[in-house]
Amino acid sequence: MTRLTVKLTSLLLALAAAGCGKEEEPKVLLPMALRPTPVDSTLPGEMAEGAEVAFGFPLPRDVKVVARMAKVWTVESGMGLEPVANYVRARVDTEKVETGPSQTVFVDAVPRGDTSKTVKITVARKGGKTLLIVRDKTRKPAEKGLTEEERWRQAGIGPDGKPIGDENK
Predict the structure, then answer these.
(1) Phi and psi for 163 in degrees, rounded to 5?
(2) CA–CA separation, 86 vs 144, rounded Å?
(3) 69, 76, 40, 36: which is closest to 55 by C-alpha?
(4) Please, are residues 9 and 15 in contact by the beta-carbon 8 Å criterion?
(5) Which of 47, 94, 101 lies closest to 75, judged by CA?
């Protein structure tokens, strides 16, 4: 053996001997309640987000889109009224929620994922299914360069506040 090989071998044996006397620190396992939960986990009765988005509002996973129009989407779920309403409640900001025994309506709601949109969301029971109806209520931005009077005329209202064409009434 060469002198270099002998030195490397003795160095490796010394390091191995030094490491043999150490005990490994025990691993600390967290109880199930304290472990971080995965992002997509849901509790029983909860709904997870799906991939489809209606007017800035993320639709739940495992729902069936039954109507998709320019300003209204209707989806159907096998979940009850309360879990679907809770799903919506967690994903919109609104100041007015109308609740009743067979439906919940989120009036002028702003989806948290797209604050440029305004929607009206109705959650209703019908025929053993829960319907989720999302209506786009976003207003068109005002046309730039118009005076206030021109904007009123474009809306069909005269300077006196009456509809244009009703001046004689």
Answers:
(1) -60, 140
(2) 40
(3) 69
(4) no
(5) 47
